[in-house]
């Protein structure tokens, strides 16, 4: 395993933590508001997070949700492309 692959694994692991934490916060609030979402659709809570989510730390939570998911996905895709080539 190359140094770049190890770095990408570390980046994916570190990006997964804020994504997981913010998803749990958004799911809890969405459930209280009666909002529906799918665990199988990436960023399925984004419409709720932008429109109806009310929280004093909304910008940080939504930013962590979007940023964490995108960085995690990018790191995994880079690993897959490296393994295939």
3D architecture notes:
Helices cover 75% and strands 0% of the residues. It has 3 helices and no strands. 16% of the residues are buried. The mean pLDDT is 93.
Q: Find the count of extended strands (DSSP E, 2+ residues).
A: 0
Please give the radius of gyration in angstroms. Answer: 15 Å
- Envelope shape: elongated
Helix/sheet category: mainly alpha
The number of distinct structural domains comes to 1
Residue ranges: pLDDT <50 for 5 or more in a row?
none
Mind describing the biggest β-sheet?
none
Mean pLDDT: 93
Instruction: Indicate the proportion of strand residues.
Output: under 5%
Q: What is the number of helical segments per DSSP (H or I, 4+ residues)? A: 3
Secondary-structure element series? HHH
Present the secondary structure layout.
Elements: H1 3-33, H2 46-51, H3 58-84
Keywords:
0% strand, mainly alpha, single chain
What's the quick description here?
The chain is mostly helical and 85 residues long.
